[in-house]
Amino acid sequence: MARNYIQTIQDMERYYYGAGNVSGYSYSGSDILKADAPLLSTTAGTYQAIYGRKVWSQLNQEFNAFSILPKKPWEKSGWRIITAKPSFAKGGGVAENATLPETTKPQFLHVAAKPKTVAHTFDMSEVAIFLADKDDGLGDIRQVLKEEMGKHHADHVNQMLTLDVETPAGNDFESLDRLTTDPDTINNANGYVSANTDNDLYSITRDGTADFHSAEVSASGTKGTNRTLSLDHLDQIFQQVWTRGGNPKVIFTGYDTLMRVQQLLQTQQRFMETKRVTPSFNGVKGVPGIEAGFIVATYNGVPIIPSKDAATDGAGTLSRVYYLDTDYLWFQTAIPTQYFESGIESGDPFAINRLGQEGLYRTMGELVVSFFGAQGSIRDLN
């Protein structure tokens, strides 16, 4: 498959990993086997599909900030954001034999962004590789470091997606917190950001002068002033997002906030309903059957996905709550996670100019939103 013909994430996985029953390849979960010769985990070379695939699977199949996002191939470095819904003022009723009503349409703004690369490297000396199998019983240190650095790469990607709005993304991926804010409230005057330009995203100046680049936010209005979480806070954002035309598909928060919501429901003799869902490259989806997927709590029928990485508002506060309509929010993937390795153990010490071994994990893409009004968040909670 030529790279120019990648149209879906499945196409991309086949191109980069050889995964799926395509062109003589089959994926068994931990190995990639070609019909005529196995590609083993001990195979040395400049690019090893196995480890990149394992980290990509970890990112997509465990509950975390990355897995709740649908994945789409990077087709263009721009997309359209909905700035206004079609007008209802034009009417729609047509009298007998009358002319058709005036045309109406949503309004759009073209937004540009480039894919960002997140990479983590590690190295080991030839002596360390040799002694690891002799002295401390660690065994194959290359294998250990590949596994641990793969986990580190996945954790770091998730932490990027949960950074506070006042942390400009720079070379990192954008964060859910930055995409679900309202510059009218989350601004410098209220103490939430060091400068109002911290709210800017992609090629958009979010100065609070337009509604289209604002999500629905429940906040105290002053950083450091916190409120006691109530079910009214949860219902308020649902109502506001629905009014804007959004429909949250998943709620992302911390374990502490999830436990508090359960307690609030119990005091009203209500119980939190559950749903069986599965994370995948298409985001979080409900699944039929008894054996598949994970059972998660829901509120208003929307799955709640808890994470240890969810942002808080400081010590003693609860994790923030994010309402995500993933019809308009996704991770645009330029290159899925890859693993590269070179050095003395690969038979090429000249590549790194020393007697050792180096490894690299790399993921390329960007978090993208096409309709801010379909997203929401709650903050300043205790």
Question: Could you give a short description of this structure?
Answer:
With 382 residues, the protein is of the alpha+beta class.
- Number of E-type strands: 17
Note the run of SSEs as H and E.
Answer: HEEEHEEEEHHHEHEHEEEEEEEE
Indicate the percent of residues in helices: 10-25%
What is the 3D shape? globular
Distance between the amino and carboxyl termini? 52 Å
Q: Calculate the mean pLDDT score and round it.
A: 83
Report the β-strand fraction as a percent range.
25-35%
Parts with pLDDT < 50 across at least 5 consecutive residues: 20-46, 287-291
Describe the main β-sheet briefly.
Answer: 8 strands, mixed
Question: How large is the count of helical segments?
Answer: 7
Instruction: Please identify the structural class as seen in this structure.
Output: alpha+beta
Strand arrangement, largest sheet? 8-17-14-9-13-12-10-11
Radius of gyration from CA coordinates: 24 Å
